[in-house]
Amino acid sequence: MPAELICFEPKCRERYPITEVIYSCPKCGGLLEAVYPPPGPSAEELKTLWRNRRTSNAPLDQSGVWRYRELIPFLENHDCVVTLREGNTPLLESRAAARYAGLDALAFKHQGFNPTGSFKDNGMTCGAAQARRLGMTRVACVSTGNTSASMAAYASAAGLTPIIFIPYGNISYGKLAQALEYGARTLQVEANFDQILALVRELAERLGIYLLNSINPFRIEGQKTIMIEMMDQRDWRAPDWIALPGGNLGNTSAFGKALREMKELRLIDRLPRLAVIQAEGSAPFYDLWRAPDQSRLRAVEHPQTLATAIKIGDPVSWPKALREVAISGGVVEKVSEQEIADAKAVIGKCGIGCEPASAATLAGIRKLTADGTMAHDADVVAVLTGNVLKDPDYIYRYHTGSLEAPDGTKIAPTFANQPVVSPNDMNKIAAILEG
Ligand code: F0G
Fold it and tell me: What is the pTM of this model?
């Protein structure tokens, strides 16, 4: 049995060739996932193989995605792979952040160390490889920032034409700058993320453009390696909890799939629980998690949050994410703009730093320890999804007390670090520093 695409819906489970250009099940409209026969080598053999590859200079082995290629075997060969040495992101322990979260210890898996600054690179190297394998020449995505930067880089590196759709006025300049610099055709559409995604899904089919949003099952395969690499870094000791921000819920789906597959292959002996954190003004998955009827997600029509990466009201991957959180015995939590901003400043002051959406994890953990959901001595890994340089304007405003939530509420600069203006005078500067 070769690699295949299978409909995720339990009632359908229709199978398709791995080379079919589809993003959802043609029969029932369900989400698709890649399935494979089990790998040949045993768990112990795989662990040794992957550890040895860390000392190899071969580009595929140096990639923190393709190093684990036995668990993402959707290609017949790797000729179409373009790697920018994605993955290889650190696991950083922080006592100060743990204390803030109400935990004895806490580690951050920091995806902001990726080539374009976010976890999207893990998935994009796979999506771009599949596009090349299928003979596609143009690729497209809708993005609030990180996906566009990542797709632009990988598509251009692979000789594909990147086309990017972004909600007009709702993207950070750093990310727009990356997309332009990496050579993407960039369209700023006067609509929100969910509206543009619906449009682009149709457009991609009409114009024969390959869609690289996280609905694309091959991106999900790449994002699985975030969990695989994290377990490798922990010598295959599964933590109690993994906390991550939830937007379109591709990552939640990818993490859940990776953890299940690793457990089935006996690479780990138990499943960590997933804690998905959303922003209060953009929390349809939180509402669904608590709803008596979980058969349908009620979209938030006008999602609001300064954490633009998770400003998504109608997340496409919710059916997968719902199942993965349930299987893991996980939870879904939501946090306020103030909680995100303060958590972000704490992560910054640890010398680590991240973008607003990523900081939702620390804010969420703090809430979950306070209400007793997470034990204080739990072994927790929080995934920081993006780099501190994503929203410099947000940071400056927070520290100078001028940051406002989308509804106009002032965000208190709880951990403010104001820059000081001083005259060009040695004595006065000395007085400021000694004062
Ligand atoms: N964190 C960051 C830094 C992101 O960029 C995103 C998504 C998420 C979290 C949410 O992840 O969708 O897998 O639940 N950013 C998309 C983008 C929307 O366009 O870059 P998810």
Answer: 0.97
